[in-house]
Amino acid sequence: xxxxxxxxxxxxxxxxxxxxxxxxxxxxxxxxxxxxxxxxxxxxxxxxxxxxxxxxxxxxxxxxxxxxxxxxxxxxxxxxxxxx
Length: 84
Fold this sequence. Notes:
This protein is an all-alpha fold.
C-alpha cells in the first residue's frame, strides 16, 4: 500500500517547529528593521549607537543571517523526517 507523504506535520519534531518559528520571527524583524530603524529604541528606550544607525545596520545583518541559518536547518530537519 502507498504511504501518504502529504501529511507529515504530525511526524515533525518540536525542533522543526522551533527552527521555523525562529526563522519567521527573525525574517519579520529583519524587514521591520529595513522599514523603520527606530523600532529598537522605541520598544526598549535603548540607544547603543546614539542614533547614528550602526547598531541597526548590524542588527539587520544579524537578523538576516539568523533567518537564513534557521530556515536552512528547518529545511534539513523537514527533509530528514520526510525521507524516513
